[in-house]
Design a protein that fits this description.
This protein has 495 residues and is α/β, with parallel strands linked by helices. Helix content is 28%, strand content 24%. The strands form 5 sheets. A 6-stranded mixed β-sheet has the order 9-2-1-13-21-20, with helices on both faces. Helix 1 packs parallel to helix 7, helix 4 crosses helix 5 and helix 11 crosses helix 12. The longest helix has 20 residues. The radius of gyration is 23 Å and the shape is globular.
Amino acid sequence: MSQVVVVGGGNAGLCAAIAAREAGADVHLLERAPKALRGGNSAFTAGLMRTVYRDAADILDLADSLTAEDLAQTDFGSYSASDFLDTLARVTEYRCDPELAGQLVHSSAGTLRWMRSHGVRFAPAYGRQAFRHGDRFRFWGGAIIEVVGGGQGLVDYLTAAAEKLGVHIHYETRAHNLRTEETADGIRPLGVTVSAAGSPAELLADSVVLAAGGFQANAEWRARYLGPGWDLAKVRGTRYDTGDGIEMALRAGASSAGNWTGCHAVAWDRNAPEFGDLRVGDGFQKHSYPFGIVVNTNGQRFLDEGADFRNYTYARYGREILAQPGQVAWQVFDQQTAHLLRDEYHIREVSRVAAPTLDKLAEAMDGVHPGAFLETVRQFNAAVRQDMPFNPNVLDGRCTVGVTPRKSNWAMPLEQGPFEAYHVTCGITFTFGGVRADAQARVIDGDGRVMPGLYACGEMLGGLFYINYPGGSGLTAGSVFGRIAGRNAAQVSAR
């Protein structure tokens, strides 16, 4: 029986472990965190997963809780493989690895059905990806499906499936190094050295799957690779993703790949803790900015809030906020759009001020120049194309004219109080640089050769995301390449 070690216990690692065990291997999964904090970054997500689908029947195949009433009042549209590939290419400025992108897209639907067969429950993301327009809900942005229970639900479902299959899960076990040997076919792993409960140990293996996340929780690496100021960003997720898996692979001879100066970073509550809080999960994010304006402490707008659907801008706007004075901004809304704010705007921990007038709001927004803010709002209001109808479900073209930056869609004048403002900073989700691997998740060395028996998946797989990121594609990529890595690792012959 082949011996497989999986390093990392998030979505990608758990999918790898399940697939390897399903294929007959003896599997040991190493989770650096204690059991209560298991799941890596996956546990902190909202559970949205981007996938190819043809129509409502494909959605019903995954989300069997849908009722006839739901189907009758919902326009799910469709999202083809071509659509998904176009999305990846466009938001990454045509830099994404075409083989990795193709594998992600064409394996997405089958992988979600496989996850469903292992007990993962899905539902349409009504609360985040669809608005009622008239008498129907219409989904937008290409991402339809989320895991019931969010990221923590995903980790719980996959952990239960892994345990049921007999995967050995080791908590509070940190992997430090790959033990390798030089063969005629290249460098191959013999196992990993670890520390568990403070004691060193070694786990032998025929193959190793690295699924240990990016380096977003490592402030020194962030400053080194992402640049000045990134050490000041808040970490949206786990404190345990410090680049261990990437470092192990590079030290063993793997090639690096991807956008090492790029990352997924969003608008995040100004007063959120340094690292993610599982109790709050992704509730500190603030993603309804397309329906208001965003200003810095100088009272000035600095980005196009309506450039595209939120799915295609949110992961790069954290960088824009980090570049502002004090690394902060305010999102401002009036009552014309306040009903569209996502659930995260209503959490108990939110950093929010409200006032009946804009003058009073300006006084309440800590650190903002009141006069400059009021002048920004005056100019913005005057620039809105009032002849264009507002529709949150489509790129409605309701824009501004004569102000910089332009707002391209969903422009509404701020004129109906009470007014609300939310204090945000930059929250980093994961880093885009990582280890080079092929579409079979096989790690590639510095000479371009496959490293037999070594696989990579999840956030530490470099080459998929550059500059930006389409919402929901990260979890899907973790599942797709995790499944592939585990299945292939199980085929490596036992010594």
